[in-house]
Design brief:
Helix content is about 45%, strand content about 5%. With about 140 residues, the chain is mostly helical. A two-stranded antiparallel sheet has the order 1-2. A hairpin with a 6-residue loop joins strand 1 and strand 2.
Length: about 140
């Protein structure tokens, strides 16, 4: 496939017909038009919906990467422990609340909130299960069961 070259030009006024002809004769093909204007309301333009940061991590001080959030990480570990013990989601939520864990919004845990975190638990599972911390917790779990 041939390499595609792109050029973006900022213009102050609509181009004259001579501009279009010159560009076309030089081998350029029009591929897009971008229109802009000042936003009404005087506020800053919205940048679109922000991506939610996965539960259990937070933005690092350098604002470049994510780092573990200790409280959320501990809540995830506790949820995993209870699920491994075959506890129901209502029981998991009740245990989290009893131990003082709160959701990211500061509210008490509910069964639907725990359910919504199941995909996140599946995502972090391989990382958690390989940690020595989980190995120690697993030993404790199987002694209790």
């Amino acid at each position: 496939m041939a390499k595609v070259e792109r050029v973006r030009e900022e213009i102050a006024a609509p181009p004259a017909p001579e501009y279009w002809r010159r560009m076309s004769e030089s081998g350029w093909r029009l591929s897009a038009v971008e229109w802009t204007r000042e936003a009404s309301g005087g506020g800053t333009a919205a940048s679109g919906p922000a991506e939610e940061i996965p539960y259990g991590v937070q933005i690092a001080d350098d604002c470049v990467h994510l780092e573990p959030n200790p409280a959320e990480h501990e809540a995830l570990m506790f949820m995993l422990e209870l699920i491994v013990q075959d506890r129901g989601l209502m029981q998991v939520a009740a245990e989290l609340n009893q131990r003082g864990f709160r959701t990211r919004r500061g509210t008490e845990w509910t069964a639907p909130a725990v359910f919504n975190l199941l995909p996140r638990m599946i995502e972090v599972g391989p990382h958690v299960f390989s940690q020595s911390e989980w190995a120690a917790r697993r030993q404790h779990l199987f002694r209790a069961v």
